[in-house]
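3.2 Worked example (two chains)
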Amino acid sequence: GVEIRDAEAAVRDLIRSPDPWLASCAMAAAAEQKLYRLAPDILAAEKHAGTEVLQVAHSAKMALRA
């Protein structure tokens, strides 16, 4: 019953994580790997982010601007 997913789906799930450290790491990874399709997920997370995640979300968003 293990679902095999691609890396993008795994990073998306981590961006949506309630754990600020995991979400921040996932946003940074998305930006570094140029996962442009995750930009909407980062924008959504940024709207609800606490101060500990906000700066990473903003930096990732800027890095993924097309």
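3.2.1 Second chain
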Amino acid sequence: PRWHQTFYKDWPTPLKTIEGPRPYNPRDMPYYQGAKQLGRSFLTDPYISPVTGRQVMSLSHPIYFQGKLVGVAAITATLSRLSHFLWLHRVTPNSISAILNDDNSLIVAPFSDGQLANAPEQKDSAFLSEAIPKITEALSKGDPNTISATTVETDVLGQPHVISLSKIGQGQIVKWKLLTITPEMDFIGPLQKTNSLIIALICVLLPLQILLIHRAAKRISAGIVAISREVNDIRQINLANPAPSGIPLKVREVAELGQGVALLRSALRSFSQYIPMGVVRDLIRTGNPIAPGVESRQLTILFSDLENFSTIAEEHNAQGLLEQLTEFLTASTSAIAEEMGTVDKFIGDSVMAFWGAPHPVADQQLRACAAALRMSRRLDALNQRWLSEGKTKLKVRIGIHSAQVLVGNIGSTDRLSYTAIGDGVNIASRLEGINKQFGSTICMSDSVYEAVQGQIASRALGVVSVKGRKGQCMVYELLGFSDTTDAELAPALTPRVAQGDLAPT
């Protein structure tokens, strides 16, 4: 056989290639014989390479063709790097780490290949040769198959040592153990000196500590009392009030506690902007953790959407349009809050809100109608200002429906959303879209109309089929409240022209 070696410094560019007669027969090597006999992957014990003269290990695997062994592929690696790693990563300067085979025979010791200068190879090797049999005997009382990480104290080496034996290979090929031997004095020696010093310091500092504790207690108590008042304020959900100033927080820890309470107030206030305030209040007052769960309730659901907003967004400046959208959503949120509604979510330029959860609302249908009117009238006021500023006019469409739905915390165990689901929610969303076909602004279902008739001004739009509801239902356009002095709730007298008959959906 011919010898062919290619050396690389930076893959894949070869550095040099050597060819010539092979100095040994690879079929006599342990990696070939082991893989041939086992018929599977085989890891050799350490041996001296006939090529480099270094201690190496080989991992080999047989190659079969049509059921016949035609060769063995092997990877051979020197142990110098692993030996150097064991030497560099000692627990203490006097500890020794080694890798043992499954039968507790030594595989790798620090600098076992003797390639680096000043390596205490002879000392460590001799010590390990003496220590390993004694350690094995000391650990033989237990079941070696159950040892995954065992640490014992023993004086079998002439003085107490802390010995750690851990499995680092669990497969059929690699079954190694990491042995660490550390003199006990490496741990307790510095501690004994430290203990003596501590005892002396305690005798001197104890009287001084008593005096300081007395003075610090006065400072701490004053700050804690002030912080306690602020925590009670937070418990009462007074998040809108600013944190009290002038709290005497002279102790650093108490000052940090005060900062934490202030941060809690700010976080809860920010949290309430994402979660309905009613849910936040219940969470703080009850102290119960939030978990997935829903209940069936009668809710009045409102959906709003800006007409042709996607088209407008493509044709206008994004930043300016965002400012307009923010103004509209702010006005809508305040209108819903004024009528005791719960803003469920913003879906782009759309708003979903409902009445009746998390707390019951007796006149939920009437309040939903009031909120819808306020949203529409406040957008009209915004449009007048926007047009004077040369900005785009926006138009809102609103759908209102009242039904029995499921409401509560919905989502995964990692992230929840307080929302409502069910056919009633889908119907409210589709009622918002029906406005487009009738040229109306606020469309409500017959379930809402029956609850508020006599208190509102409205007009019948027609009988339609709404997906999610059996049969047909009459839908109405909300024009205003019949008897009110509130300008935002007064009926709108602007005539509206229907866009034709609504086809069943």
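3.3 Remarks
Residues 112-121, 494-505 have pLDDT under 50 and may be disordered.
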